[in-house]
Amino acid sequence: MTKNMVISIDIPSGLMGEDNTGNISDNIIQADFTLTFQFPKISFFFAENEKNLGIWEVLPIRLHPDGIAQTLTDFRLIEKEEIQQIIQKRSRFGHKGTYGHALLIAGSFGKMGAAILASKACLRSGAGLLTTHVPHFGYQIIQTAVPEAMASVDQHDSIFTEFPDLSHFSAIGVGPGIDQKTNTKRAINELIERSKLPLVIDADALNILAENKTWLEKLPEKSILTPHPGEFKRLVGETENSYIRIQKQIEFSKKYKVIVVLKGAFTSVSTPDGKLYFNSTGNPGMATAGSGDVLTGIILGLLAQGISSENAALAGVYMHGLSGDLAVLQNSEFSLVAGDIVKFLGKAFLSLKSGSK
């Protein structure tokens, strides 16, 4: 027997618009398509509700712009117009010093690919200068693979144990591929204590923080943490569902005065003032090794140029997803790799000038 197509209008019957904690999943309609009005519901952004929503689309119903503007909410959707305001046209008289000097601490034995991907993404995002700090054995690798970057070389052959004078830099990122050895943990703690700038913290650096939660109190204000769900769980503990998880995300940002970029489909960005933004770009092909390293590089490159932490995170996740959307048109969701995201960053920035997504 052929299954009838199920189309839900506004929201599948039985599904709540925000919190479905305690809801009985079997009692919720499983739609093939959901046609909702004017705005998506918060619950549309949660993975556990995909089976109920099917493919969903927002239909405009011409609500008055003034009424929309006057409606108070802490939830937002990141869209092109907002990013166009963040990524401004460059001055004809700008030079490499104008656009900041980023420090990226990345790589260890067997994980130099993370340093390469993040470095390329940082430069492609507009940083004027980049210094990548790598273990001693990684010097030739980074200089060969990313000739545009300067190299800072650790005294240790295979891991991160020290960092250069921080006063030369306008933004600092740490974590991609650095491993979690004892000396690396010691260096992370010292970096947190000595940095006067917000840090972009990813990957192994997040896992080190999760093991040493007292260090969270020492993070420079408006640092940007970019965990995937597993890393976030190690930071805050288990959560029953996605709605409770974003509540913990918001609480975490407010408590430690940091930006949290919780990666995934519809990546969510929380801010110290209690706001949460869902990203509107990206596709399943980006669920691939190294994609998070690319995101770290993009955010670091934007931050180095003097863009605020909040705006660097918002623009970073949007441009990361947009680049992936452009790349997947040529490479398919199955064959997309992280390097493709870097390659399409230029087209993503160009598309901000056009009428496309």
Shape: globular
Strand arrangement across the biggest beta sheet: 4-13-12-11-10-9-8-5-6-7
Ranges where pLDDT stays below 50 over 5 or more residues in a row are: none
Structural classification: alpha/beta
Topology as H/E string?
EEHEHEHEHEHEEHEHEHHEEEHHHH
Radius of gyration: 21 Å
Q: Write the CATH homologous superfamily of the largest domain.
A: Ribokinase
Counted by DSSP, the helix tally is 13
| Main sheet overview | 10 strands, mixed
Number of domains: 2
Percent strand = 5-15%
How many β-strand runs?
A: 13
Which range best describes the helical content: under 10%, 10-25%, 25-40%, 40-55%, 55-70% or over 70%?
25-40%
CATH fold call of the largest domain: UDP-N-acetylmuramoyl-L-alanine:D-glutamate ligase
CATH architecture field of the largest domain: 3-Layer(aba) Sandwich
Task: Supply the CATH class of the largest domain.
Answer: Alpha Beta
End-to-end separation = 40 Å
Mean pLDDT, nearest integer?
A: 96
Could you explain how this protein is built, in words?
By secondary structure, the chain is an alpha/beta fold. The chain folds into 2 domains: about 70 residues, no CATH class; about 270 residues, Ribokinase (UDP-N-acetylmuramoyl-L-alanine:D-glutamate ligase). Helices cover about 40% and strands about 15% of the residues. It contains 13 helices and 13 strands. The strands form 2 sheets. Strands 4-13-12-11-10-9-8-5-6-7 form a 10-stranded mixed beta sheet, with helices on both faces. A 3-stranded parallel beta sheet has the order 1-2-3, with no helix packed on it.
